[in-house]
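Annex B. Sample input.
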Amino acid sequence: MSKKLYGNSRLAAGMPRTGMAFLFAVVAGCGTSPSPQTAMDQRDRLVAKLAGNWNNAVQFATAPAALEVPPSVTGDWLNRKHAAFTRVEATAIGERVLYLEWRNGGRDEAISRQRIWSFRTDAAGAIRMDFYAFVDGKPWADRAAEAGAFRGLTLDALRSYGPACGLTFTATNQTFAGAISAKDCTLTAASGRKMGIDASVQLTSDGALEYLESGQLEDGRYAFRVPPSQPYRFVRLR
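Annex B, continued. Sample output.
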């Protein structure tokens, strides 16, 4: 299977490598390895907490007007997103799989991002999350609520970020923090460009979901940033 990844540069953003590397070091270095059963319980709790519909309407409404500009890889910006994370049956990918479908603005607006997140526990008992992008996301759009729709999904339909790019999560009380640093995660995009990936996914103590991701080219320029200076801060919709 191809290990190339496609990215949407209009969804750009990220954190400097030094900041992400520090976050990753903190996350990876906390605590001792949980027992296998505890790790599986934490994994299942993380998946359950992520599943649902979210948006960043509050964050967008309170953001400085200067950030309300079109996304770019150079400037600072923030846009409004509706994010749906749906647990799907895709046994060829993993036992705990979420289908991610983001939309620009509200829940009925255009799809801007589709991903598969697959959760597992590794040999050390840590919770890992593997990223996948779709080779062609159109056949899977708007099908999250359809029973069995993802049952036939295989790795051939996806582009993997690769095992080295799996986020490592730690759990503390009601919070989860997962991150990967560009020093550990590199890939070749569908465009043929090699880049390092910084990514952070956090479920905070107040119930918010914070997301940040960027791809940085070998010459130091950003290929994409999602978003630039601060993470998306999603609030669950009831």
